[in-house]
Automatic annotation (TrEMBL), chains A, B:
Keywords: Activator, Cytoplasm, DNA-binding, Iron, Manganese, Repressor, Transcription, Transcription regulation. It comes from the Bacteria. PANTHER family: IRON (METAL) DEPENDENT REPRESSOR, DTXR FAMILY, TRANSCRIPTIONAL REGULATOR MNTR. It comes from Algoriphagus boseongensis. InterPro entries: DtxR_MntR_Metal-Reg, Fe-transptr_FeoA-like, Fe_dep_repressor, Fe_dep_repressor_sf, FeoA_core_dom, HTH_DTXR, Iron_dep_repressor, Transcriptional_repressor_C. Homodimer. This is Transcriptional regulator MntR. The keyword Repressor applies. One of its GO terms (molecular function) is DNA-binding transcription factor activity.
Length: 220, 220
DNA sequence: TTTGAGAATTAGGTTGGTCTAAAAATAATT
DNA sequence: AATTATTTTTAGACCAACCTAATTCTCAAA
């Protein structure tokens, strides 16, 4: 069965918002993610329900079906492969690729994606460090390391904290670190293991080894 | 101004059918090229006229405007660059690329095309030997050679004949050669300059030097 | 347990691109 | 020149994807 471009986009948004089918998603959430109105979303949910890529009960919510997940992962795979292409081969900066990849992800040609994958040397992660699903939709999630174990000049993204006490989160917030931030290790002090990192290519933060060991990074 | 995908496709078809604005094109021709019905074409011609990419007078015909030519050449440029990419980088066969390039040509991103062009080393011809317009729409047409001047194993495409008498054209038709045919030189006889060529990868033809000298080829 | 507030859905309309069937314009033939 | 044939355009409909406005549903608070 063929999905339209709009259907692919909705399905991808639903997949992301529901965190792969785990969380529930509201019509309003989808509308704001897709920059459309809730009325349009209801309409589309009915259609997606008819195509059985979601299970949809009016007013109650929805659930992505296995079929739906496969479609979503396929689109995500294409998006991320194209991002790798743009950055690795065409020298795009990592923040310039999204729009173009949004268009390229809808090109229909299994052969193209197969060849592109080979041409790029079967990358497992996109330029943002997000994993690229394989052709069956399987995702290898990247191992996470503690920030204090990283070396100078390595880069990555904050994905979780080990100490999730309010005090610690407040501290992170205060210094400008947050889940999802992209970081780069600028310096490490051998003496006490304290570390200096660059957040989002603009803000520099110093922190003790103790703090750093509570921050989990996926490297990129 | 932005053209829709359908508008780009119609404009490209009109450009090709009119041979770059030289010949006149009928509604029926466009319909059969686009695999739509004449009624749909009339509708679209009105829209293209309003956007001033063609000059359209009902029942009388149409003329591509300079603006229209620029759009058409831009689309053709993108199509052919993508074809080079598919063949040179992703190892597609030359007859597998068209469908995919039809999709890729509609991706909107001037930066992408600029970078792709550089990545491919500013190719001047696509895998079919057709010239790639530059970003201003200028086309460098490939120098044409007489078939008898080609060497063994060289390939190319028949683009014109020097003797266009009915007798000669009838002869060409009879042996299975035609304008547009892809050919490869299989053998040349030193003694009398006669030549053996392979047409469209299937048919072998022998011809005298005299005949060959009246056939013009662009090499690829 | 009734009642609002807010979320979600339906009703009805618009636009782009297509279609069929009918009408109009042009071209061809007697 | 008149009639017929062909091409082209218009009229009216449909589908996908969106919209606004009105309605319906749910859920929490009074």
């Amino acid at each position: 069965m063929e999905l339209t471009v709009a259907e692919e986009n909705y399905l991808k948004a639903i997949y992301h918002l529901s965190d792969g089918g785990k969380k529930s998603v509201s019509t309003n959430d989808i509308a704001s993610e897709m920059k459309t109105k809730p009325a349009s979303v209801s309409d589309m949910l009915r259609k997606l329900g008819e195509k059985e890529v979601i299970e949809y009960r009016k007013y109650y919510g929805l659930q992505i079906t296995d079929s739906g997940k496969r479609y979503a992962l396929q689109t995500i795979r294409k998006h991320r492969l194209w991002e790798v292409f743009l950055v690795d081969k065409l020298n795009f900066a990592w923040d310039e690729v999204h729009e173009v990849a949004e268009q390229l992800e809808h090109i229909q040609s299994p052969l193209l994606i197969q060849r592109l994958d080979a041409f790029l040397n079967y990358p497992k992660f996109d330029p943002h460090g997000d994993p690229i699903p394989d052709e069956f939709g399987d995702v290898r999630s990247r191992p996470r390391v503690q920030l204090n174990e990283m070396e100078i000049n390595q880069t990555g993204q904050i994905v979780a904290v080990e100490d999730s006490s309010a005090a610690f989160l407040r501290y992170l917030d205060k210094v400008g670190a947050y889940i999802g931030a992209r970081i780069k290790v600028l310096d490490k002090v051998e003496f006490d293991g304290s570390i200096e990192i660059l957040v989002d290519q603009k803000k520099t933060i110093f922190m003790s080894k103790d703090v750093a060991s509570n921050i989990l990074i996926i490297q990129s």
